[in-house]
Amino acid sequence: MTLLLLFQNQQPxxxxxxxxxxxxxxxxxxxxxxxxxxxxxxxxxxxxxxxGQWILRLFRGWIQKLMYRKDVHSSAKPFIESLINVAxxxxxxxxxxxxxxxxxTLFAAGIASLGVALGLALSGTLQNxxxxxxxxxxxxxKVGDRIFAQGQDGIVQSIQVFYTIVNTxxxxxxxxxxxxxxxxxxIKFPEAKA
Length: 194
Known about the structure:
By secondary structure, the protein is of the alpha+beta class. The protein folds into 2 domains: 2-121, Orthogonal Bundle (Helix Hairpins), CATH 1.10.287; 141-188, SH3 type barrels, CATH 2.30.30.60. The chain has 7 helices and 5 strands; from the N terminus they run ααααααββββαβ. The protein has helices at residues 2-8, 12-17, 24-69, 77-100, 105-121, 123-138, 178-183; strands at 146-149, 152-159, 163-168, 173-177, 187-188. β3 and β4 form a beta hairpin. The longest helix has 46 residues, at 24-69. The model is unreliable at 1-8 and 10-16 (pLDDT under 50).
């Protein structure tokens, strides 16, 4: 019964009236009519998806070259690449679904509510991420600088997207969440002159 509803787009009330099974000829006719009606859209959607994947591969290469030329920090490169890749894949998927004629209002509402839920659940992590990007791009300090933050004095070993690793003067490793380094006072010691 649901197969008949899918292919003929009839009201459910009409389907309930029919109790005898479909014959092979009726099913064949329904399938052929559906393919003739929707086949060109599906073929166009497949072609657009394949071309979109090809363009995405070229765009990824262009982004990698751009980040190399702009000297983007090595810890931020994989994250930025994957973020751009996922965003474009989602846009391509939505575009292909639109070509096929699939209604996306329910899909869009589900994605929006999921985004709000994830945003609330990961607010601290997202804050560390945003602060990490600020540190990587604004460069208030860099790897190798000696800083004093949160009562710790040490040399910056690594700046990651979510946290920063500092080796202290008494040979301890301290991992700071980036939000603490971005939103509070940091003392950066001058570089020693040779």
